[in-house]
Please model this.
Amino acid sequence: MDSKLSKLGYLIVSLILAILLAGYANSQQDSSVTRNAQSRGANGGTGHEKTLGLIATKKSTFSVPLQLNGIDTEDYYISGAPQNVKITVSGSSALVTSAQNTKNFQVYADLKNLTEGEHTINLKVSGMSNDLTYKLEPEKVTMSIAKRAVTNYSVQTKFDNQAIANGYHAGKPTSSVNAVEVMGSTESVQSVQSVVANVNVPRDTKANIRQDVTLQALDANGKPVNVSISPQVTTIKIPIIGGEGSRQVPLKFNGKNGNLKEFNVDADVNEVTISGETDDIEKVKDVQLDIDLKDIEQTKTLNLNLPTKKHVKMEPDNVTVVVTPKEQN
Model:
């Protein structure tokens, strides 16, 4: 009897141990699968990836061109439609990456059978995998349809002559684009009076100008007109030429045979007008005049000739100076 009970006890203990071992093995296997799935998600993700079971998922936002379908853009002018729209694609990581890299789908506005005028159109997507979801931004676009008109205009260059430095003047401007094609609705194109390149000239300009300028179509009141211009950018060159000019510079005194700080000096002028070629007078910052202080022991009036400078004329050509020793004050 004892022997039978002992055997039964061993069987029960063995069964319990087997159940415990099986449970432990299953938990280890589940933990390993979870770790492997998490490891794959962490190593292959872009910050927007998740794991759904053992499949990595991803969400990505990028720009794609907007296509205009169902209308002949050679005959009609479309305004208000953006060049690109944003799309957010979600799904398996591999499919999302493929869609982003290949862009093997199309975002379009269906303009078929629409008449001239303004329309609000829901954007559509074709060619997208059924296993992906997406969201467009914007989802709808308001655009205008009008009969297309095309005409040619010559380019006019405009700039502020007053910004050019004194003594300089602008030569004849040149443009890399002399004529442009203006496209738009018939009404808009007919309102265009000129196509201009507005050049920004810095104040006191003395150097030649070279500037890339975006062209503008203007109406009779000088206001911009909403049309397309091709080409849209031109390079403007304006030569800046120096000529004759004049300007005032300060008169400065230097002591000779004595210390000028020990004397008061009063002159009938403090500035001198210099004139000549612009490049020459630009080099003159002031006019220096020497005063001979030897034997001046009391107030003395001197008539001094200004020094001459090559190619530069000075006015006046002499100044009257009253020199007084300071100890007599």
User: Anything to note?
Assistant: The radius of gyration is 43 Å. Residues 27-47 have pLDDT under 50 and may be disordered.
